[in-house]
Recover the amino acids of this structure.
């Protein structure tokens, strides 16, 4: 899979950019936009493409499940401790 | 759904590739003209400003680098200043009032260092993949794990949002403003910030509000802190807190939860993407995150210093809320200082309400692959804006219900943030080590060591809390 190479050199804005015009007010604004945005930054490109699923190894699955159980158990403990604190306060 | 989306629906979803090439140089450039959305054009406008600043660097390097920094700061500053939210500031205030100057000052610095380590990874993820955190989790690990991560985030965010509006209400109550007016006007500000339909404007408005987090600095100076004790505490981490060990443990967890929370990961990555940052902006993103870390740490310590007089004079600050803190501090920091403290709590709640509701909206939009950008107009991204405004409205409404269990929420929110953090960190570490999407920007050895250490520390803190709750006799209770 293609990965990002080192930072590309400075990109020159489109010659139509002038001094300080907005993209929408510039003739050829869309072409100018394409010079400053990366190809995979465009909404259309992101709609059309997705990063696919990666393989989750057995160890990673065990870690994720372990942490899931940890979170649920801890939430039960928090609920228990807060109810007890409220009971004491009342 | 916009027209560009419909046009692409006829094609099967293709596999994404990270690429640094400009869209104009891609093989599909000719097909893209005419398909650019409002979001693309707004983002391109921001990128054009960045490109101009880089180009002008040759003529006036110093001015250009400052301008570049001004253009690229935002997500890092915002995430840390917003995380200095109402419950966090109240946790710092509680530690200052109950334990004075000592262990908690260097401990707060440590939590911000941990925060910087993990937030820097989100900058790289966002700038390289141009995808938000939730989107990457769904894409790379599938819906099953994605929904777990989203459920943790939604639950934590909603509880935190409620506490922000409690902070707003409590802060303004010091000035005699009724809860309905306080909460209602804050909701209007949340809506006004997104009303511009432009990420850049939203970011600058929110940054403008967030800088008032610094109100706690003059409050701390008015308390005339003993600077020698502060220096001693920073160097030696003493005096250690004394008292009920369980209460100390809960406060330690609350202070960690005040700096390292799941919403920060999701928010900063999504904001980096919405801002349009690219891999070459990563150094500026790091500076932005470091600036946010340093400023937020200073403001957090200022709260501890501001409330230290309560400890020194033996005033019990147990179960204090914002207005009570401000009133109790009056005799030592004066009416103006107390008013600034109350105003600071209001600001902390307001800015966090804006960013946390935005974080929820980003995550839902990314998970469901609907429009999720502040650069999109309402008609194109109404589900995104509905989640943003809806979550804020429900949380605000809950605060106004008489006899709602607000105390329950305040007690739990930061602790829950700490408990939900380890799974979020594991997803973060797996993503940032994923060379298929990160390429050369993947984590190196030291970043992994730091990330794993933060995760292990949070798990140990959580387990310590769990054991102390289930077996209180172990702490001599």
């Amino acid at each position: 899979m293609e990965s990002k190479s080192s930072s590309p050199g400075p990109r020159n804005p489109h010659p139509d950019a002038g001094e300080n015009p907005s993209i929408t007010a510039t003739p050829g604004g869309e072409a100018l936009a394409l010079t400053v945005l990366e190809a995979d930054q465009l909404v259309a490109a992101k709609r059309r493409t997705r990063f696919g699923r990666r393989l989750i190894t057995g160890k990673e699955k065990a870690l994720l499940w372990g942490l899931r159980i940890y979170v649920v158990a801890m939430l039960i403990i928090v609920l228990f401790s807060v109810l007890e604190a409220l009971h004491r306060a009342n | 759904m916009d027209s560009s989306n419909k046009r692409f629906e006829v094609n099967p979803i293709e596999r994404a590739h990270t690429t640094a090439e400009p869209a104009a140089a891609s093989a599909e450039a000719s097909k893209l003209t005419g398909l650019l959305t409002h979001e693309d054009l707004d983002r391109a406008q921001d990128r054009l400003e960045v490109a101009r600043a880089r180009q002008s660097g040759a003529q006036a390097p110093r001015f250009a680098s400052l301008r570049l920094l001004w253009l690229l700061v935002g997500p890092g500053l915002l995430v840390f200043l917003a995380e200095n939210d109402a419950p966090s500031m109240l946790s710092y205030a509680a530690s200052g009032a109950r334990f004075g100057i000592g262990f908690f000052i260097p401990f707060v610095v440590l939590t911000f260092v941990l925060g910087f380590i993990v937030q820097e990874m989100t900058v790289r993820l966002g700038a390289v993949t141009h995808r938000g955190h939730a989107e990457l989790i769904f894409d790379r690990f599938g819906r099953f794990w994605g929904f777990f991560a989203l459920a943790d985030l939604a639950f934590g965010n909603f509880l935190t949002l409620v506490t922000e509006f409690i902070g707003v209400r409590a802060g303004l109550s010091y000035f005699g403003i009724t809860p309905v007016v306080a909460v209602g006007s804050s909701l209007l500000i949340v809506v006004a910030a997104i009303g511009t339909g432009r990420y850049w404007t939203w970011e600058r408005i929110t940054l403008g509000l967030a800088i008032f987090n610094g109100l706690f600095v003059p409050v701390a100076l008015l308390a005339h802190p003993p600077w020698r004790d502060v220096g001693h505490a920073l160097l030696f981490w003493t005096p250690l807190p004394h008292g009920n060990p369980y209460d100390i443990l809960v406060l330690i967890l609350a202070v960690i939860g005040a700096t390292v929370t799941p919403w920060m990961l999701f928010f900063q990555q999504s904001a980096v993407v919405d801002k349009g940052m690219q891999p070459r902006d990563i150094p500026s993103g790091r500076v932005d995150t470091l600036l946010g870390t340093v400023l937020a740490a200073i403001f957090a310590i200022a709260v501890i210093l501001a409330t230290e007089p309560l400890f020194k004079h033996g005033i019990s600050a147990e179960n204090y809320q914002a207005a009570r803190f401000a009133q109790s501090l009056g005799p030592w920091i004066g009416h103006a200082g107390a008013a600034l403290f109350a105003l600071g709590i209001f600001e902390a709640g307001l800015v966090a309400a804006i960013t946390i509701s935005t974080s929820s909206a980003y995550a839902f939009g990314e998970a469901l692959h609907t429009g999720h950008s502040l650069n999109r107009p309402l008609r194109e991204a109404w589900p995104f804006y509905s989640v943003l405004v809806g979550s804020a409205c429900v949380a605000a409404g809950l605060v106004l219900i008489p006899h709602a269990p607000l105390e329950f929420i305040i007690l739990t929110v930061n602790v829950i943030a700490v408990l939900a953090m380890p799974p979020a960190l594991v997803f973060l570490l797996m993503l940032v080590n994923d060379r298929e999407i990160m390429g050369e920007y993947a984590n190196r050895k030291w970043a992994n060591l730091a990330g794993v250490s933060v995760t292990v520390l949070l798990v140990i803190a959580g387990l310590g809390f769990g054991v102390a709750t289930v077996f209180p006799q172990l702490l001599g209770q």
